[in-house]
Design brief:
Layout lengths: L1 E5 L6 H15 L7 E5 L2 H10 L4 E4 L16 H6 L2 E6 L2 H6 L4 H13 L3 E6 L3 H5 L3 H9 L9 E4 L13 H14 L4 E4 L7 H5 L6 E4 L6 H9 L3
Parallel strand pairs: 1-2, 1-8, 2-3, 3-4, 4-5, 5-6, 6-7, 7-8
The structure holds 2-phosphoglycolic acid.
2-phosphoglycolic acid (PGA) binds next to strand 8.
Length: about 230
């Protein structure tokens, strides 16, 4: 199973080092049959990658060019050098707040693959799209832009479930995961209000290969409880 912690714009370098200490302590002596990845802010990538034991780190975004006049952007080569082996692409917050499109998601995914980063590509429908019965169409459209590469990981994150405390139902998750797996042969993670109280049930759903966790991953003990809830 995959357990991915998306810290979003949270934690300084100092805070991420304390977190690393705690999660190392919790995981010590545990069997590591899972893939665990933490996505800190760019500034903490390097130090976190040096402090964690048996956990990978990833970037929350990249730009698709390697270098050049792109003020404020960061390239796949730079995050690799800082220790990242994964990258989140197309998170709904980037789509909604920062103008990310299916086209830019595609370019970034291809660039990540070219530079040896595993892209964790986020897709999902809004509440309006779900209520209009358009979920499957939206997912299909988003999937159309995703490279069919065996390194790709998909995260299904219904927008209305992110940071709201309202996760999708088991039936809703199972239906979408089944649909995605019919189109692309990739691990499919669920994301959206996963916590240690609902993770056991969510991770037990057919077609769920792990979770992308935001808010609940900010606390090392809570993140560890989610990992432990996997059967
Ligand atoms: P959440 O965020 O767990 O806080 O809902 C998930 C995500 O945005 O990846």
């Amino acid at each position: 199973m995959f357990f991915m912690a998306n810290w979003k714009m949270n934690k300084t370098i100092g805070e991420s080092e304390s977190y690393a200490e705690r999660i190392n302590e919790l995981l010590e002596g545990e069997e590591t049959k899972h893939t665990i990845v933490i996505f800190p802010p760019f500034t903490a990538l390097r130090s976190l990658s040096e402090h964690l034991k048996g956990i990978s780190v990833g970037a929350q975004d990249i730009y698709y060019e390697e270098s050049g006049a792109f003020t404020g952007e960061i390239s796949p080569i730079m995050v690799r050098e800082a220790g990242a082996s994964y990258v989140i692409i197309g998170h709904s917050e980037r789509r909604r707040l920062f103008g990310e499109t299916n086209e830019s998601v595609q370019k970034k995914a291809l660039s990540a693959l070219k530079h040896g980063l595993t892209p964790v590509i986020c897709i999902g429908e809004s509440i309006g799209e779900r209520e209009a019965g358009r979920t499957i169409n939206i997912i299909k459209e988003q999937l159309g832009y995703i490279p069919k590469d065996k390194k790709v990981i998909i995260a299904y994150e219904p927008l209305w479930a992110i940071g709201t405390g309202r996760s999708a139902s088991s039936e809703e998750i199972e239906e979408v995961h089944r649909f995605i797996k019919g189109i692309i042969d990739a691990p499919v993670l669920y994301g959206g209000s996963v916590n240690s109280r609902n993770s056991g049930e969510i991770l037990g759903i057919e077609g769920v290969d792990g979770a992308l966790i935001g808010g609940a991953s900010l606390d090392a003990d809570e993140f560890f409880s989610i990992i432990k809830s996997a059967k």
